[in-house]
TrEMBL record:
Domain spans labelled Hemerythrin-like: 13-127
InterPro entries: Hemerythrin-like
Organism: Ramlibacter ginsenosidimutans
Protein name from the UniProt record: Hemerythrin domain-containing protein
Family annotation (Pfam families): Hemerythrin
Length: 205
């Protein structure tokens, strides 16, 4: 199993980018005028994806990067996750028709977008510069841990998809990614982009 994971897993940085894309794509489906059922399904799905992603980064990615780098962005990454967790806890128990439901979700997504921008423009490139030999092994470790975390929450994942039936196809694809189905479809495009990025960064240095 361990060797299969290391062969099939995207690198840790590409896995993080894929998670970000998934969360932002789900957010872009959110409309104030949608039914309560669709909004509940989308919000629950986004919240679960953020929770699993944040835990994976805190257990695997941040410690690896901290071992070779120190920066304000890296130090504030986990406290920012905690702010997101606070908003997620409020959303979980808030009825969709609460007057501040939309604003609370938008506040969460403002935090997410700011945080994702810092990670994608600073932390991921730093990891690719400083840890090039470890990205594959860290990706395999992240895939293994993802399966552990997503497995017990499969009913939640399925429930959020079912509640937003009109978005079912998109969320079903996202749920598969959340649960680690990328292991079965190696992301050659992402790997090619990564190789091109590192080639251009070498040319630029
Ligand atoms: Fe993060
Ligand atoms: Fe992230």
């Amino acid at each position: 199993m361990a060797s299969m994971l290391s062969q099939l897993s995207p690198s840790v940085t590409n896995q993080i980018r894929m998670d970000h894309t998934h969360v932002l794509t789900a957010f872009h489906q959110y409309e104030i005028g949608s039914s309560a059922r669709v909004k509940r399904g989308l919000v629950d799905h986004v919240c679960l994806a953020i929770e699993i992603h944040a835990q994976l980064e805190e257990e695997i990615f941040y410690p690896a990067l901290r071992a070779v780098a120190d920066s304000e962005i890296l130090r504030k990454a986990t406290p920012e996750h905690d702010e997101m967790r606070g908003l997620i806890a409020r959303l979980r128990y808030m009825p969709v028709d609460d007057p501040v439901f939309n604003d609370t979700f938008f506040a969460l997504m403002r935090h997410v977008m700011h945080h994702v921008a810092d990670e994608e423009t600073l932390l991921l490139p730093a990891a690719e510069r400083l840890l090039p030999e470890q990205l594959g092994a860290l990706g395999a470790e992240m895939s293994r841990r993802r399966l552990e975390l997503a497995g017990p929450r499969a009913p939640e994942i399925a429930g959020s998809v079912a509640r937003s039936l009109s978005l079912g196809a998109m969320l079903a694809a996202g749920s598969a990614a959340l649960a680690g189905a990328h292991l079965l479809t190696r992301h050659r495009t992402a790997d090619r982009l990564s190789a091109a990025r590192s080639r251009s960064s070498r040319l630029g240095s």
